[in-house]
Amino acid sequence: MWCLELLLPLLLIINDARCQWNVWVPRDISAMTNSCVVIPCTFMYPSGIRPYRGTHGIWYFGQPYPQLFPPVVFKSRTDVVHESYKGRTKLLGDLNQRNCTLLINNIGAEHSGKYYFRADLGGANMYTYPDFSELKVLDQPNIDVPEEIVSDVSLELTCYAPDNCPEMTPEIQWMYIDYLPDPEISSDFLEDGNTAVLSSTLTFTPRPMHNGQLLGCRVYYPNTTQVYERLISLDIKYSPRSVWVNVSSEVMEGQLCDAALRGGQ
């Protein structure tokens, strides 16, 4: 069902609150392979609609157009879903309370992509929201490395791990830092748009001797065998230095005389 706001944009100035098909999902969310992810979701529909035989919903993968038969991730009316989602999905939200929050377990790289929610209120009152949540499934953590690393200048490296699986809380550990000068490590928890990221920042001052040294970030889940690692190699540039050369006048005069004699031969 299309709202008049969608068919006739000029009616936006009327601000008709009765016509509202809206959904709130995080635009981007990430998770590690073999973990889980929760996609927070809240939806609205026109106030004049009365759900027929309850409120139902469908989650699609890849595209919002049911006539093109996108893979079904979750369907509240039946348990018929695409093969790659069987036994993996669960609705955490209460659709009658307009909460469409979705849990996906044991995710793999094939589950990376866009997720769309479709409200089914009975009869012709069905609507697939165009807003989507894009899931990125990672097989290694991200490390934020400056474009240029300069010798004798303080350096910060930050490792990130998604924390969007309530059943599994990640921890971050730095590797191969024993030979760094006075390394400092600080952790932080970032939350934005109902998605969460755990970060760990390594701070130290690199020396020329550290050029080519390997450093690593390890993300692991306590009480599991799941470990993810990423290695980087330090490419250290020398800091600019001013070099003063003091040449005595006697040396300069001697060089000029020798040059003159050779030129006259």
UniProtKB/TrEMBL annotation:
Residues 130-233 form the Ig-like domain. It is found in: Membrane. Keywords: Membrane, Signal, Transmembrane, Transmembrane helix. GO terms for cellular component: plasma membrane. One of its GO terms (molecular function) is sialic acid binding. It is a single-pass membrane protein. InterPro entries: Ig-like_dom, Ig-like_dom_sf, Ig-like_fold, Ig_V-set, SIGLEC. This is Ig-like domain-containing protein. GO terms for biological process: cell adhesion. Residues 1-19 form the signal peptide.
